[in-house]
């Protein structure tokens, strides 16, 4: 079957730019039909991964392989090629399929051969010719066909296998034998009919005319002999076909030694083993035996008359009947035995046929497998060749495109250069013509131009003199009137003074006012987050402002889980800061260092709230991009902090990003200037702001920064007890509270918790999460909440919790691996830089030693 099915068998390989598969039910029906009927798509079998399409549409672009063949699976061994070719005046392509009939494996089959043809010399000669032509057709080209008959058949090599050659030879002999036998049968039948007709006419002629000539009598005998030979030949053929006569190497009617003849089975007449004559070699005396002799009938009639006249006629008749009955019974018994023997022979024949068929099927299966493997190798090689050819074509096309592009570009450049040269020559000619015309005009009008210049200069001189005289007269009269009137003189001096003061105030007072307003009400650009409310924020959020004023300071370590000794130290810092704020004392600068996610930023915010101060958070990474504006922005931060009445806790996160060593680190001049400004503003203790630095690498700080720090606090990763407290805290915050709170007026929360021991599970999680920071544990709590919301029923089970804990542990291990690899890489780079600096110092010292 073939045609436009309007469906695809493989959506992934046969469709392009489809959002969904069309005709899914029809496609499933076709696939089911293919499985039931053992049919397949030959193009996909030969091209298992290639994507080509038989239908396409331009807007929007869609392509699919809707046209294909469906053939029986056994025909794959005969498949030579299938391809997709471009169509003409249609949106479908042409699909082609080529099958080689010569690849068909002929089965052995069953065919009843007429053994009497073996005595036909013409037929035997035809068989020899068929064998000779078949050898010529399939013999390898290495042989000399002129001498091919002189080579033994067992030593010949053919282009196909010996088994296939034998099957092909049998098929060709069969195709020649069937029409020959039919033709001979028709010829003999026609000849027999003609003889019978002629004999009948001669007999009628003899019956009607008693005086028959001798030649007619001879003609009758000749025709009867011919008819007798034909009947004899048919009888011999019937005997041979019925297997009632054994013919072995020209022998007679004696059966082979391995054949058991049942008792009473009639043996047909024939020659003996000592050279008896066969059915085709009968003598004239034997031929006369087949003539009709009426003497026996006459004797039988006479015996019947004598028997009737006898007194024992009835007894003889009964005796003959009994003898006949006995003979009939014996004959029936023999027939039964023969039938049983024939049935046994049929069973043996069927068994032998089935065994032969089984061997044939095994051999055919083997041949099919070998041919399939060979076809697969050919298809793979063909596919590799196609890929190589396609790659070569692509390379050739790319090369041709590049050459064409280069040629076009060269032609375009040549065209532009030629156009530019023409334009330049035209412009040069135009300028030269204009200059020559202008020069010619000036030479011709030289006297007029000189007279015009002289008149214009005279008029200009007269105008200037008149203007000077008029201005002197007016200014002199006005100055005379001003110095003579004291009131006008005083008013003029006062007006000039006020104008100068207004200009100065407008020029300098606006900038001072803007800076003051910015310092009081605005937020510096380096400050990322702050709790200080501006005037506009207070108006927008009045409730928040009132709540902040009314609320009392909370515990500085509320919600923060740390080591007991560290908690005690931080609580002392919080209390000291709070009392410093109340007594308007000088604040102390603090450095908090340790791994990320251990609570440094959280404690800084809580410390500011506990002390009643405003907090401002800035990051060290924002300073370097400021460039030249970094110094100004840094001063604005400290100016803004000094204007706060509550005091500001200035928290600098990732401070090591810009507070690096100035002596050894390679930093830009802008960043160095910003660092100097920072050091200048933090050189003395302040009662307006408290500086808190956070860093993961405090060893990179400049020594001047270390000198400005009053206290250093190390935040380490939580231990087992702290992790258990953190797990319980975040499990309660993100799981238990949302599960027990009601959302809205008409329903509860979607989050539900399965029934298990929460306390034991928290302890187990704390033991598994060794090395995780507080931030990672808090994210783990958020992950539990998210996986519960993502489930179908919203129930958080123990299995979900364990899965998320396992994911968090794997992610932490990966981060640790990255950090270790980065540290090793930095150590190698430091070693290389040290080696290069050492080599450079040695290289530069050699010329100095030589000159010295």
Automatic annotation (TrEMBL):
Bilayer-crossing regions: none
Pfam families given in the database record: AAA, ATAD3_N
The UniProt record lists the keyword Translocase: no
Ranges in a coiled coil: 202-236, 431-458
Biased composition (Polar residues): 320-331, 842-852
Ranges for domain AAA+ ATPase: 586-719
Keyword terms, alphabetized: ATP-binding, Coiled coil, Membrane, Mitochondrion, Mitochondrion inner membrane, Mitochondrion nucleoid, Nucleotide-binding
Domain of life: Eukaryota
Alphabetical list of InterPro entries matching this protein: AAA+_ATPase, ATAD3_N, ATPase_AAA_core, Endo/exonu/phosph_ase_sf, P-loop_NTPase
GO cellular component, one term: mitochondrial nucleoid
An annotated Gene Ontology molecular function: ATP hydrolysis activity
An example Gene Ontology biological process: mitochondrion organization
Compositional bias ranges of the Basic and acidic residues kind: 303-318, 348-367, 829-840
Compartments where found: Mitochondrion inner membrane; Mitochondrion matrix, Mitochondrion nucleoid
SMART domains per the UniProt record, alphabetical: AAA
Protein name: AAA+ ATPase domain-containing protein
Organism of provenance: Pinctada imbricata
